[in-house]
Design a protein that fits this description.
Radius of gyration of chain A: 35 Å
Largest sheet of chain A: 6 strands, antiparallel
Oligomer: heterodimer
Subcellular location (chain A): Cell membrane; Membrane, Coated pit
Number of helices of chain A: 45
Radius of gyration of chain B: 22 Å
Largest interface: A-B, 86 and 72 residues
Strand order of the largest sheet of chain B: 2-1-5-4-3
Shape of chain B: globular
Structural class of chain B: alpha+beta
GO molecular function (chain A): clathrin adaptor activity
InterPro entries (chain A): Adaptor_Complx_Large_Subunit, AP2_complex_asu, ARM-like, ARM-type_fold, Clathrin/coatomer_adapt-like_N, Clathrin_a-adaptin_app_sub_C, Clathrin_a/b/g-adaptin_app_Ig, Clathrin_app_Ig-like_sf
Organism (chain A): Chrysemys picta bellii
Keywords (chain A): Cell membrane, Coated pit, Endocytosis, Membrane, Protein transport, Transport
Number of strands of chain B: 7
Strand content of chain A: 5-15%
């Protein structure tokens, strides 16, 4: 192609560009640009009307200046004028300027849209092309609104030229990505699917991209694309290398189209139709076979294109995860690539194998490559390849090779690049925990981790080791001995001091028998590190010392001396000072018994998902975080950090920096927004100081009141039961006198069931309302505990008298749900609102809901109202995130017929994906994305916390849009739980 | 694909194409960061890297780096060949392309890219078809005829009669519509007859 008109005669532009290139300095360049800008501005403002050519030239110059990185604040209007020029070249420059420099100036958008509209209607394919390119490049919502209805028509019209169809398809794709709400689904969708059969491969290429994106969101509507894509693919892979003429790329037939078709097929599960399925398997086999053939060209383009198709085929095989034969072949193929001389292929092979490792069919095959991968870790020169090797080792790890892999990773960690150290640390910590047969190995590994890469060991990692050591008494002695030895090193990492301090504080007594680690030696060892540590660590050590006072009374005076020293008592840091003062006081005034109770060994932590796993997920998560996600993360870190209200024995002083500290503070401060970590620990300390008697009281009464939260809150109310009379206030007596029906509970108020259902997926709202009374609810739940605020609003201007709300539980419910509350004031003034707090503890799973009965006198009449109180089993849900393979593994484990509960029911509300998602999250389970092979389905997981047990729950909701039906399946380890959750959730859709 | 950047060894940005909406500030930040990262890599290293939550695919041609950002599920190798095909297109159009061609004819580089990739997806992979589209546009550029020019054509004895008939038919149409169609029509006729335009 001869360069027809390089620069097409815009000499002025060429001169300007070479001027800029000749500028010796940045300043000179800016000067030249400013001169030009002034010139253009005066031309645009001048009285003389500019001809099209000059306008084009100046707009082009402005564009050039903008692309150099300078701001342009004028010229938009001139560019828009160019759009309506009849000269192709002027129009083209106008569109280019708009595409690059569009801003949401509403005035201009209208003009631009107008010009585009004209060009789309012009029936001139070149102009239509320009207009479509512009829409696709800008893709703003305004444009979507204006054209999303029009473009599908152009796309499927019979007389549209091929090139316009291609542009229209991709233009629509762009609009769908930015504003799916403006792109209406309709008859055109089925015609778009048939573009897969188009004669023109360019049209097929463009259409496949569009269909893939649409199919991800609307799988049902585009289901027919599967068989068409398979037959198209089959024709391509079996074609001779010259059949497709210009669509053959370096002897590879239509590689781009093949890749796109394989991507499209990944939106769906394996085809159900046996013939289609067979044909697809043939295609995939052919692609795998071709990889073994000698290359048709030595050019890298040939092998790249060929392998691009191969890798996409392997992705599809992994996605289907159903043909063991193909999976193993894919794995072998990747194994060959692991030792390929092309770095790119080694990289990709490691990456793909990672996903292959999670398939049960190919996991073993992947494991055979362990030596190669370890070797890659040692010898690859490119850090990004080594990173992939680490990922793969992590993915292929199981009980059989964990020791080897962890050892290799630790080895690598010593020399690893700083950028990936933290991630490796997390991975080692997770593997060590997950596959620990022997917990001494686990402790050794983590301590090694801290030794090698202490700076990269995050809080979560050392919290976790403490949680594990506390929960397993078989490893406590070993852990104490090991940290003691590790602390002997003259320079040890601060994280080691933290772990050491915590563990010795709890279990130092287990090694105190050995004269080499006598109490005093332990104490001196820790205290020798004290002055080198940061404030938080020192604070932790102070708590260790007070624990030592209890463990080793013989060194009490030594410790008191340390606490009493000026550097502690008069420390500039208020936290340290306060701890020193409080601990010193505690050690002086409290008797041995009290000390023993307050400083008792920490109770076991509830079993939960490793916090580190969450951290790793977080690290891998997307860079941009919305508020919502932030909140979710915060919640996650709370859960995993252990700050949730763990059943703390009220009399145990948690080590100040332990995760439990927060929960103590939280219990004390009530349902206010969580204070920051620092604040929370200070609050706790404060309460410790002022509340020592209270804590002791808590201890003495704790035998009789099992609910820790209630006691700390000091509500001290007796549990309410149906058999018990209404709380004895002066008012209730009067009721008895006045009313003959006072003790009779009214039947449920009409609409109560409906209202009840609305609260299953939410916690706040209005529960009941009539002309007199409004009942509002606010509740929060954590693990097996909850608290509900009931607000009674008097809507009248007259007082309610003898106002008596009562909670009624059946005997059965009473044994599984513990409710505590205080009576409210029997008089509710007109227009006033009273509040009642109910503390809730879930002992075991339950079916019914408690009844809230309210009796009062309004004017001369007696009112009696009953409503169901929405305390449902799902409130004690804790969401659990898990990957696809974990989910299905667990799903399979729960295959007992009693564990599964299924319900097929008609949709009661419009079937909206987003609303459904919100409901599932509101229900309490985690919503797992990209788990179900069918993206239309919803999958959730969570744990129901009760006092006695924790019950893992998996759920799957399959909507059927055509029939307007849902199928809901619940699998949990307990039959009654499956049943109840299924009941509750079925009512929601 | 989320965006494509072309920059020189010296880190000068030569072409930028964004397929996702981002603010100018964000674009500049990304560009700076990526140019730095890619230029720091050694020649034998692999062409892919993870960056934020995207995958970067890059390749160097002489003094120019071509760098694409793709999403997690996108295919790296095929992206590498997208780059190569684009280079081939530029090469064919400019006749052994060099960095200067792209500097001085930046608008052409954008036009070619738009014909090849649209909205971040491959629109047309056939080299012939892409170049034909650009060629046609170039032809139209030359046939910049004014209204008087059209009458000259009409009275020129060697003009194809079809053009005349066409003009008659659409004479009732607006001026704009009319010229638009004659542009395409005449150019198409000439292509058909293999004649060279000579006026």
């Amino acid at each position: 192609m001869p360069a027809v008109s390089k620069g097409d005669g815009m000499r002025g532009l060429a001169v300007f560009i070479s001027d800029i290139r000749n500028c010796k300095s940045k300043e000179a360049e800016i000067k030249r640009i400013n001169k030009e800008l002034a010139n253009i501005r005066s031309k645009f403002k001048g009285d003389k009307a500019l001809d099209g050519y000059s306008k084009k030239k100046y707009v082009c110059k402005l564009l050039f200046i903008f692309l150099l990185g300078h701001d342009i604040d004028f010229g938009h209007m001139e560019a828009v004028n160019l759009l309506s020029s009849n000269r192709y070249t002027e129009k083209q420059i106008g569109y280019l300027f708009i595409s690059v420099l569009v801003n949401s100036n509403s005035e201009l958008i209208r003009l631009i849209n107008n010009a585009i509209k004209n060009d789309l209607a012009s029936r001139n394919p070149t102009f239509m092309g320009l207009a479509l390119h512009c829409i696709a490049n800008v893709g703003s919502r305004e444009m979507a609104e204006a054209f999303a209805g029009e473009i599908p028509k152009i796309l499927v019209a019979g007389d549209t030229m091929d090139s316009v169809k291609q542009s229209a398809a991709l233009c629509l794709l762009r609009l769908y990505r930015t504003s799916p709400d403006f792109v209406p689904m309709g008859d055109w969708t089925s015609r778009v699917v048939h573009l897969l059969n188009d004669q023109h491969l360019g049209v097929v290429t463009a259409a496949t991209s569009l269909i893939t994106t649409l199919a991800q969101k609307n799988p049902e509507e585009f289901k027919t694309s599967v068989s068409l894509a398979v037959s198209r693919l089959s024709r391509i892979v079996t074609s001779a290398s010259t059949d497709l003429q210009d669509y053959t790329y370096y002897f590879v037939p239509a590689p781009w189209l093949s890749v796109k078709l394989l991507r499209l097929l990944q939106c769906y599960p394996p085809p159900e139709d046996a013939a289609v399925r067979g044909r697809l398997t043939e295609c995939l086999e052919t692609i795998l076979n071709k990889a073994q053939e000698p290359p048709k060209s030595k050019k890298v383009q040939h092998s790249n294109a060929k392998n691009a198709v191969l890798f996409e085929a392997i992705s599809l095989i992994i996605h289907h995860d159903s043909e063991p034969n193909l999976l193993v072949r894919a794995c072998n193929q990747l194994g060959q690539f692991l030792q390929h001389r092309e770095t790119n292929l080694r990289y990709l092979a490691l990456e793909s194998m990672c996903t292959l490792a999670s398939s049960e069919f190919s996991h073993e095959a992947v494991k055979t490559h362990i030596e190669t991968v370890i070797n890659a870790l040692k010898t690859e020169r490119d850090v990004s390849v080594r990173q992939r090797a680490v990922d793969l080792l992590y993915a292929m790890c199981d009980r059989s090779n964990a020791q080897q892999i962890v050892a290799e990773m630790l080895n690598y960690l010593e020399t690893a690049d700083y950028s990936i150290r933290e991630e490796i640390v997390l991975k080692v910590a997770i593997l060590a925990e997950k596959y620990a047969v022997d917990y001494t190995w686990y402790v050794d590994t983590i301590l090694n981790l801290i030794r090698i890469a202490g700076d990269y060991v995050s809080e979560e990692v050392w919290y976790r080791v403490i949680q594990i050591v506390i929960n397993r008494d078989d490893v406590q002695g070993y852990a104490a001995k090991t940290v003691f030895e590790a602390l002997q090193a003259p320079a040890c990492h601060e994280n080691l001091v933290k772990v050491g301090g915590y563990i010795l504080g709890e279990f130092g007594n287990l090694i105190a028998g050995d004269p080499r680690s006598s109490p005093l030696i332990q104490f001196n060892l820790l205290h020798s590190k004290f002055h080198l540590c940061s404030v938080p660590t020192r604070a932790l050590l102070l708590s260790t010392y007070i624990k030592f006072v209890n463990l080793f009374p013989e060194i009490k005076t030594t410790i008191q001396d340390v606490l009493r020293s000026d550097s502690q008592l008069k420390n500039a840091d208020v936290e340290l000072q306060q701890r020193a003062v409080e601990y010193l006081r505690l050690s002086t005034i409290a008797s041995t018994d009290i000390l023993a109770t307050v400083l008792e060994e920490m109770p076991p932590f509830p079993e939960r998902e490793s916090s580190i796993l969450a951290k790793l997920k977080k690290k891998k998560g997307p860079g941009t975080v919305t508020d919502l996600e932030e909140i979710k993360k915060e919640r996650n870190s709370d859960v995993n950090g252990g700050t949730e209200s763990t059943p703390v024995n009220a009399s145990t002083v948690a080590l100040p920096d332990s995760p439990l500290q927060g929960s103590l503070a939280e219990l004390v401060t009530g349902p206010r927004p969580r204070p920051s970590r620092l604040n929370s620990s200070r609050l706790a300390i404060h309460n410790l100081q002022t509340g020592v008697p209270c804590l002791f009281k808590g201890f003495f009464t704790s035998e009789s009141t099992p609910s820790p939260s209630a006691d700390l809150l000091g509500l001290g109310a007796a549990p309410l039961t149906s058999s018990a009379p209404p709380p004895s206030s002066t008012g209730s007596l009067l009721v008895d006198v006045f009313s003959d029906s006072a003790s009779v509970v009214a039947p449920l108020a009409p609409g109560s069931e409906d209202n009840f259902a609305r609260f299953v997926c939410k916690n706040n709202g209005v529960l009941f309302e009539n002309q007199l009374l409004q009942i509002g609810l606010k509740s929060e739940f954590r693990q097996n505990l909850g608290r509900m605020f009931i607000f009674y609003g008097n809507k009248t201007s007259t007082q309610f008298l003898n106002f008596t709300p009562t909670l009624i539980c059946s005997d059965e419910l009473q044994s599984s749900l513990n409710l505590q509350t205080k009576p409210v004031d029997p008089t509710v003034d007109g227009g006033a609102q009273v509040q009642q707090v109910v503390n809730i503890e879930c002992i075991s799973d339950f079916m019914e809901a408690p009844i809230l009965n309210i009796q009062f006198r309004y004017g001369g009449t007696f009112q009696n109202i009953s409503v169901k109180l929405p305390i449902t089993l799902n409130k004690f849900f804790q969401p659990t995130e898990m990957a696809s393979q974990d989910f299905f593994q667990r799903w399979k484990q729960l295959s007992n017929p009693q564990q599964e509960m299924q319900n097929i029911f008609k949709a009661k509300h419009p079937m909206d994906t987003e609303i459904t998602k919100a409901k599932i999250i509101g229900f309490g389970s985690a919503l797992l994305e990209e788990v179900d092979p069918n993206p239309a389905n919803f999958v959730g997981a969570g744990i129901i916390h009760t006092k006695t047990t924790q019950i893992g729950c998996l759920l799957r909701l399959e909507p059927n849009l055509q029939a307007q039906m849902y199928r809901l399946t619940l699998r949990t380890s307990k039959e009654t739980v499956s049943q109840r959750l299924c009941e509750l959730l079925s009512e929601q859709f | 694909m989320q965006f494509m950047l072309l920059f020189s060894r010296q880190g000068k940005l030569r072409l930028q194409k964004w397929y996702v909406p981002l603010s100018d500030k964000e674009k500049k930040k990304i560009t700076r960061e990526l140019v730095q990262t890619v230029l720091a890599r050694k020649p034998k290293m692999c062409s892919f890297l993870e960056w934020r939550d995207l995958k970067i695919v890059y390749k160097r041609y002489a003094s120019l780096y071509f760098c694409c950002a793709i999403e997690d599920q996108d295919n790296e190798l095929i992206t590498l060949e997208i780059i190569h095909r684009y280079v081939e297109l530029l090469d064919k159009y400019f006749g052994s392309v060099c960095e200067l061609d792209i500097i001085f004819n930046f608008e052409k580089a954008y036009f070619i890219l738009d014909e090849f990739l649209l909205g971040g997806e491959v629109q047309e992979t056939s080299k012939k078809n892409v170049l034909k589209a650009i060629e046609q546009a170039d032809l139209l550029q030359e046939v910049n005829f004014s209204f008087t020019r059209i009458s000259q054509i009409l009275f020129n004895p060697c003009i194809i009669t079809g053009a005349y008939l066409f003009l008659q038919r659409s004479s009732a149409e607006q001026f704009g519509y009319f010229t638009v169609n004659i542009d395409v029509y005449v150019q198409w006729k000439f292509q058909q007859s293999g004649q060279k335009i000579c006026w």
